[in-house]
Amino acid sequence: MKRVYDFLKKAEVYYLATAEGDQPRVRPFGTVNEFEGKLYIQTGKIKPVSRQLAENPKAEICAFVDGAWIRIACELVEDDRFEARNSMLTAYPNLRGMYNENDGNTQVFYMKNAVATISSFGGAPVNIAF
Prior knowledge:
This protein is α+β, with helices and mostly antiparallel strands and 130 residues long. The chain is 22% helix and 48% strand. It is built from three helices and eight strands, in the order H-E-E-E-E-H-E-E-H-E-E.
């Protein structure tokens, strides 16, 4: 899991794919946080991605850095605890202008049943389940 976390942190921006009915939806994200042995991402409850994940928690994440790319297939599970939201906002203090732990909007999800594949043009893919 640490290798996945390090890859996403180094990439800084990754792309999160969800589904809205039969239509895929992809958007850039920039938050990843390790909390209590799980990888978390953050969004706002007012955004369409929140509704999409409530309807279908299956998602994929993709990022590219230094000639390698990662794809993560997972379920994203909401963690509505103050501690989880606080950990994310402590890791990303620049978000505090838009979010806070008790605003009713800040939402964090952890990756469940995740399988990451790190690939490059020159080497064999590496699979990491967490």
